[in-house]
Protein 1
Amino acid sequence: MMAEKAPLLQSPTDSASEDNAYDYTAPLSNGPVLETAAPTAGLKTNNKLHRPPRPNVRIIENQPYEPDIETSLQSITSGSRVFTEHSIGNLQSMMGIIKGNIGTGILAMPVAVQHAGLLVGTMSIVLIGIIAVHCMHLLVICSHTLCQKTCTVSLDYGEVAEEAFKAGPIFLRSVSKYAKCTVNVFLNITQLGFCCVYIVFISDSIKQVVDHGIAHPHSPPSQAFGAMLLVFLIPCALFRNLNVLAHMSMFANFLTFVGLVIIFQYIVQDMPPASSYPLFASWSTVPLAFGTIVFAFEGISLVLPIENKMKHPEDFRGLAGVLNTGMVIVTCLYTAVGFYGYMQYGHKKILGSITLNLPTDNWLYLSVKLMFAVALFISYLLQFYVPVNIVWPLIRRRLHSRRARLYGEYIFRISLVLFTYALAAAVPYLDLFIALIGAVSCSCLALIFPPLLHTITLWPDRINICVIVKNTLITLFGLLGFAVGSYTSLVQIVNKFKGNNSTLTE
């Protein structure tokens, strides 16, 4: 997930009128409650917000809230929670979940199915989706439990890890700061990995369109188009206000929707029979499928920011809650694109994005490549905000003058853009890059950390042996995918550089 200037921020201790006063004396219930809509026994009933105190809570009076998920990126690394009289409803929250998960991952689902086979690949999307959603629930449970223990309004992912270790077994309390640091490091790796993938995707897409237009036998490599992209990327990356990108994000969402509709209408036409494809591919490429699928389902970093801004957060969880409903839609879309995309192109090598397999002699499908290129250019700027928001404050505190901080931030942002381009240019293989990022960092954030934090948070009185076994199995599954997926992806990348890609073309 505005263009108007936001009203001044007001802390809970600032003076306020009686109509806009907030009551921070009420205890926190089982879930974060943003608003009391009906009289409640023992509490004031003038529609005030009831929350325990926290020094860094920010309150914005009378400010409309735009439900674009990208605006939640500030909360990924910020411990403060923004309260407004226009907190998002259930529908906006569900749309935020969907938009936060639909990205380049959905375009790579056909190659994931090709790596695992028609049956195994399709079932793997569903299975990993179920586990990933369950881990999202575990993270929300941890957040609620720790908010109650610490009388805190809200916690981000890193703070959940820190507070869980602080309140957990004694031998873990001394390393609580390292737990938060570890989560933030993997958040950085994931977001920068997304940015690298976007550069590779945009470069490949523009190259295909240019090759069709000029039909020159010696077309520049995709890295050259990535270098040209820097001319536009660097100035835009210097924007320090997400409000500038909010309206562009709406345009990107529109392009993504139109592009997916055009892709679907093409891939369901004239499909070969399913019997012509193997149900299982090869053990040597299954880890690549794991990394690609986990990459697509890494939306867990946006779960807490969305839940924190909900008008009725008690509706977020539950069998038919906002989270389950949104992720069921996402999983169905992933499965459909993976299955039908593989059925359409499985007889030949599927590229890292299904858009790269679309015909290059038809301007309708060439326009789809450009649509996603523009959409991901905007997504790059939004994803880029997260590592900047994590790393830059650590550097800023070492700079003392205002001029040094201003120019230091510009230099830092430009250096970070050049760093992502350098990685993208060094590994210009979209499918392998996606699998590597998915196995290395997304598996940790989506599969490994949540069950570990859940066990530590509920230890020892509020957890039973069945939950411990279940959490242990999920963690081991994530660790296995992390180790094998990372190794396989690196081996395939090395083989690519050596000119030995036999494993991928078998």
Protein 2
Amino acid sequence: MYFETFQLVLSHHPEESLQWDKKLAECSTQQERDQLKSQLSVDTLKFVLLLYIQQLHKISLRTSLVYTEEWPSRTRSPDLEGRTTPASSKALDEHSHITFVLNHLNEIMELLIEPDAYGASSRSDLTLTVESVEALGFLIAGSVDRNRSIKQLLEVALVQQVQPKSGYSKITGMFSFRMFQSWLRSGIGNSPFGISSCIATGRRLSWPMAAEEARPEGAAVTTTKRGKIATNAHCVPKDQLRGNKIIIMSQVCKQTIARTSGTLELSSVKIHRCHYSYLYLLSPLRSVSIEKCRHSTIILGPVETVVHLNSCEHVTVIGVCRRISISNSTLCTLHLLTPTRPLILGGNDSITLAPYHTHYSKLQEHMHQTGLTNAGNLWDQPFSVGPDHHEDHPVWELMPPKEFYTFNIPFEIQGETKSAPCELPTKYKKAVTLREKQIDSWQKMVKEAGLSKDERKQFQALVETRFQDWLADSGHKREVDALVLPQETKKK
């Protein structure tokens, strides 16, 4: 799992990911797959840093570890709404991240020292190699032009004017451990392209919300609170958008949002406290975080790295992604196309897994952009690491075929994809086929009933009435009403 995580956070060209997935899909046995995976390698120093961070993470089994402080230490801090929340409910606190790194910077840097350096020098004369500083760039990046561009930590440390402060010696080709640490401490700060920065200085997006737009002319204005959507796309360097461009969607309530755009493309999306909403984000995405959402359906374009759900309830996610993980959530349904095993962490209950079952016209194109294929789908092979999961009483289940329905995305986009990218498993395909036959049989029966013109009208009115009653009783009426285009849009 850690090796897969390491590969995820590295920047791979989409074509490399496509080739790897293709090779993996061609393996006919588990032995062949294991043999292929054994050919992969990792940068040792960077991987050590990843493990150090992981063993301090809250979800780790801390009781068996030397260190006991959490990553991060989630003390009271303002969240997206400006309120204070208890430590256990805080999902992201960049200030605590910085505090943690500064408190443990000496230990982190000591992991990167060459073993023989301890014997050759006194502790005050310890040095860091260029390779060690390059590895530290796995966690820390820098800038020398007030964040107009992002540079690797090593590149910043070797700038001519910076070398006296960073402790670099041209004679030895190494950095003074003491001076480098002092230089880092004096300049380290929050990422200018992080969540907190986006909240503070981001540009608000006025994405149309269908339910709001579809209100008939002259109808009373509802009191539904409009959600907050913001991005930092305008301030991220154009050649460094991947991984730095962020879109935050917060407090979208009883709305339908459908979007495909350049701003959304390859962004890291944070969906926070959205309730009773339908969100269609039909662009290739870098990563998606879904937190504290309730009774919502979220349809995603292909996600290059990770989709993570945390503290959600009655949420349905439909998407293609490299990896998906879920924690502290209940009664959630995941329709997936993923080449890795779904990661079920702690605090979950009643999680339903199902195969991916929809498409839109640009899906295949977007999958190629994110390095994803339909070569293998491990949606039904979750990896449960939470302490509340037991083999005799799992926190997840596969969706029963009788409850499975295909999902239609009700928007027209120019593209070549005409069907779902992967074939349904046999039992689900049979359930869909049986349902289609029942519909055909019913339509045939109506056609052969020999109804007169007036009887057909009366029958049609009865069907429509019953359908409207079903929409209201099932709660789908708001969803359908939200898809009605406003009159101004129709005229255009």
Protein 3
Amino acid sequence: FGSEWFWYYWRTRKLKPYVEFMEGNYPPGFTYPEFAPMFSAAFFDAAQWADLLTSSGAKYVVLTSKHHEGFTLWGSKYSWNWNAVDVGPRRDLVAELAQAVRSRTSLRFGLYHSLFEWYNPAFLEDAANVFRTNKFPTTKSLPELYEIVNKYRPEILWSDGDAGAPYTYWNSTGFLYWLYTQSPVRETVVTNDRWGSGTICRHGGFYTCADRYSPGHLLDHKWENCMTIDSKSWGYRREARLQDYLSIEELVKTLVETVACGGNLLMNIGPTHDGRIIPIFEERLRQMGQWLRVNGEAIYKTKPWRRQNDTVTPGVWYTSVPGKPVVYATFLSWPKQGLLILGAPHPTAGKTKVNLVGYSAPLDWETFGGQELVVMLPSVSADQLPCQWAWSVKLTNVC
């Protein structure tokens, strides 16, 4: 209900919807830890998840191993009786998904890990001391990080939740030195930028800068847009309405804009307490995979072009192929007259070729006013188009 920040909003913020929800559905004195036995993961099927992730066209997956409430999805030695092996599912969910992903797919396996925990006594003690003491990182967060790296060998380590404490409190540099020079994943691991106050969007293998970050322009550092299919939450919400979920058109638009500006897209879904991925999340993932099976050449292994979006027609985004004279223009709306007008690319008569990705016949083109490239799109019915939501034109030998 409400948010993955439920405990904090109910206990600390005392927000009215959360307080009323608890008063109307649970007895007086009910505590958040009493939810743990209800987390059953009874229908969690790691193989099914792995197959779905593959069908989505994803190239990597990041599992939330621990969020801010401190409950770990593995049997951590540093989270006694507050983990998925000791209570609730009584299963190592991290191990199950890691094994399924590695045995059934070519995806890279990653883990999200929250540095802080809202109500851990050691953290609260350090916070009361304005982080001049470091009891919590030395006894909890750092041992957990070493534990998940050594045990599950994630190739993406997605840190979060510095709670305003500096990287020196978390000893982030010490841990990252070990991660990149001595750990079992030192040759392959990548990390994000959330390792302490002031590090976000400044230090990291890739930047995240903010949740749902989409700058709309090229950055000089690799970055990631971490966003949610449910526009209001990172978790599963029983009260969510259909309009809360992004449409496949909105998701494709987000992907295309992100890649054109040099970013990766991390698209979040929230599973249920019994381990299911609900149908609307499954549908969106499969739709994204359907689109990528046609247009993947305009996304995978590409790099930003000299222009990120078109100078004349809105909703057109560019990518290019390293080492080849190929540029892709992905357009989000089909032109009413069947003419795609592009202001950024400059064609050369006798050399430039234009193809609609997924459509076999080459396309005719001409220039208008010596500047704009006018592409004649095929006159076909909707069911003859290679895809439904956005389309990519392959431009060969343009400048």
Protein 4
Amino acid sequence: MGEEELRSKGYPKTPDVKLKTPIIIKEHVVYWIDSKASFGDDYNYSVNYKEQFSGYISRYGPGLVIYWFGFIQELNGENDDVLLLCDFPENVVRLAIKE
């Protein structure tokens, strides 16, 4: 589901994409994806985490953030619920969910 669809359903804080079926990227389960047209430095990450990512985690679970202009590598270990990348990965495993 895209951001507009989520908002139309009443979700207050929305990532760019909420996945209907989670995926695995680099051994991380991902339920949502947010894209940032910025560099992920200490300041941007902490502001983004406080104002957005923490809400996404509490509502949807762990997710992926793509910083278009890269990020400080040490930030990738700050929180196990947020995977940081600078582009969309090629090796994605889709989880099968039984209904």
